[in-house]
Fold this protein.
Amino acid sequence: RQIKASFIVAYHPPIFEGLKQLDGQRALDRMVSQAMAESISVYSPHTALDAVDGGVNDWLASGLGQGTCTAWSPDEDASGGTARILVLDNPVGLPTMVQRVKKFLKRKTVRLAKAPGGPKRIQTIALCAGAGSSSFEGADADMYLTGEMRHHDVLAAVSKGTHVLLSEHTHTERGYLPLLRKKLRKELGTDVDIIVSRKDREPVDTV
């Protein structure tokens, strides 16, 4: 409303499940109704932006070191991949990899589940922005990197010798927005104002 935008690109869909009615009782209903009333279009690329070549997952992989990055999907019939497998040219110790992730994502802390007897040097990394549990099914890697995983999925990973590094859901995604802005600028030219929201932030604080 403040910047008079007519089109919103929201990475996460404001409507995540089907709606049967808008009764104004929920904040979501009011937000959708306001967008409709003011003729504001909303587009949410979400998983498509994760999977596409040069998308969020490739951006995430780019901060981990030089290597070969390929699309990965637990579904063998899938044409693309919602995750990535990165094989580093030069393996590094687990502490070094942790520091690389923290520096790239600009985080002071991350969560690490060390696999007892797991590899001391990291070469193969399965990664997925956001929540990667289902995307890692069947992936053989020294480490999983994602925003969040279910407790039992973490236990299953470390039990088979795979370290798990978690940086919270939003931190593995939000850093891509400036890059997305550049891509949109290239496609749309200079006649369209493209503004990255300054109010958008991690909803959870560490206290």
